[in-house]
Amino acid sequence: MTEAVPLVEALDLACLRGGRLVLEAVAFALASGDALLLRGPNGSGKSTLLRLLAGFLRPTLGEVRIGGVPLDRLPEGPGSRLHYVGHLNAVKPLLTVEENLNAAIGLAGGGDAGPGLGALDLVPLKATPARFLSAGQKRRLALARLAAIPRPLWLLDEPGVGLDRRSRKGLEALIRAHRRGGGAVVAATHGDVRLDDAYALDLDG
């Protein structure tokens, strides 16, 4: 029986930044449906690891593979296989909620704004210019791309920041549905967003 290729692998990653070794010998593999929770204090390397997995940083040592293919050799680039949601929401203030989502879909090469608007309760706000949104509403708009643009791997850096309890529950439901559909999630969170049956990686800095 052929063993399934992991959806994402980190192979002995190390990262040196500003003369400091932020990460060393980080290794894991996630299959479809898996989730990995990154834990550790501020400055321990959680955000750095997520950026390495997204291809925004190059590791000093080691390699990231998506579906068995080295990240830098993916034919259409990392963005074709993953979503990265960082601390910045990347929302254009002059565009409406729906226009923002459609712009992201256009850049990604396809998708559907409907599921994104519905998943995070943005339908009543779809015609509202983003400059009028609260911090929590902008965060929901950033997260709506997860549902609007299908990608197998989600990399989430403190995704619950700015969300109220109802919105966090909506995000948790979105993550569960993504995993049931065969996707995987790597998230750094301080406990405000729950990941069921998740592996944990402790980074102590």
Fold and architecture overview:
The chain has 205 residues and is α/β, with parallel strands linked by helices. Helix content is 28%, strand content 25%. The chain has five helices and nine strands. The protein has helices at 46-54, 97-108, 113-119, 135-148, 165-180, and strands at 8-17, 20-30, 35-39, 61-66, 69-70, 82-85, 153-157, 184-188, 199-202. The chain has a five-stranded parallel sheet, sandwiched between helices. Strands 2-1-4-5 form a four-stranded antiparallel sheet, covered by helices on one side. Strand 1 (8-17) and strand 2 form a beta hairpin. Helix 2 runs parallel beside helix 4 (135-148). The protein is globular and about 45 Å long. The model has no long low-confidence stretch (mean pLDDT 93).
* DSSP summary: helix tally: 5
Unreliable sequence segments: none
Average pLDDT level: 93
Give the termini distance in whole angstroms: 40 Å
Concise summary:
The protein is an alpha/beta fold. It is 28% helix and 25% strand.
Which descriptors apply to this entry?
single chain, 205 residues, alpha/beta, 5-stranded parallel sheet, 4-stranded antiparallel sheet, 5 helices, 9 strands, globular
